[in-house]
Amino acid sequence: MAAAARQGIVVPRNFRLLEELEEGQKGVGDGTVSWGLADDDDMTLTQWNGMIIGPAKTVYESRIYSLKIECGLKYPDHPPLIRFVNKINLTGVHNSTGVVDIKTVMPQSKWKNTYNLRMALQALRQHMMTKDNHRLSQPPDGQMYSN
Prior knowledge:
Layout: H1 2-6, H2 13-26, E1 33-37, E2 47-53, E3 64-70, E4 81-84, H3 102-105, H4 117-128
Antiparallel strand pairs: 1-2, 2-3, 3-4
């Protein structure tokens, strides 16, 4: 299906999300990010959970960050809504809600429908390593956003 996306063929949302679910279940990548459905019975494939392991040699090291991800009806043409569950001090993340501003995290390009959940989570992890972020003081481990 990835080849279909590169060729300009429009893949239905649910097919695309099923492919992403399979990729998440197989543990594709280096293990520093993961994702899966929040509820296995979610036939709309809308509510997801994500996880990021904080990068080494940053203030995020030795922390595991949980995220809530919502793939709306217009995904992948529009980016998912991503929200941290654990409190984090990171540019592009609203300090009272944990909602991620995807434009801040992926500033080098506008969201494209060829992007996926893995790429968004990896971009967030890379963002943690930027000069502006890698030394920011962090809330005590274990604090959660209230919403």
